[in-house]
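Support request, please re-run this one:
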Amino acid sequence: MTDNLQKAYIAFFQPTESGPGGAASVNGRSRITCKFNPREYTVQKSAAWRRDNTKGAKQTSMPEFTGSEPRSLNLEIFLDETDKGGDVSKDVDTLFACLVPLQTTLSAQKPSPPFVQFGWGTTVLFTAYLKSVSAKYTLFRPTGAPIRATCTISLEEIPAEAGRQNPTSGSLTALRSHTMVEGDTLASVAYREYGVPTMWRALADANGIDDPLRVRPGTRLLIPRPDEAVRTS
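Re-run finished. Output below.
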């Protein structure tokens, strides 16, 4: 039973104008996997309304709907390194690094922190940007190194466009491509792009591949958006 336990995670992706791009490296990592799954998380959504008050009116005015607010997700992640001899600083620093621009975006003169996805096992639950992180350290080594912390995290969703057809393959939208080299497999490309090797099925479907074990070096793969890849894997 324990071997089949699915872990929650926060994965990092390059920000693009149309949504998450390829996997992003934050402090040398493409994701944080929860050692202990969250006990709960909260999703909230609001609607924006405007009401113009009229002085002296006996009744309130009719409200006008002005738009939908983005969904937000709030959760706590429990970090613990008591049995590994390390500390939780790297995990916390990685989360904080998601609040500042990636070096790749600075080089492109379009500064932006990474986009993130909160998922559980093979299910993506939320595609968003990290809005805030608060870390509460609760246990320390004699040296003062923190070995246990609870991080309170707030995410705000980014819009997900409806799937569009690709003119060459009839698949969902591809933001980028990858040319297969010796040693590449669909599973290894899926892990590099999405952090989940089992999402090779989305790559196969997007590229019309019938036999995933016979993809030759030099083959150009179209890489679907992560949220679209999840829906087709």
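The longest strand covers residues 123-140. The domain at 174-232 is CATH 3.10.350.10 (Membrane-bound Lytic Murein Transglycosylase D; Chain A).
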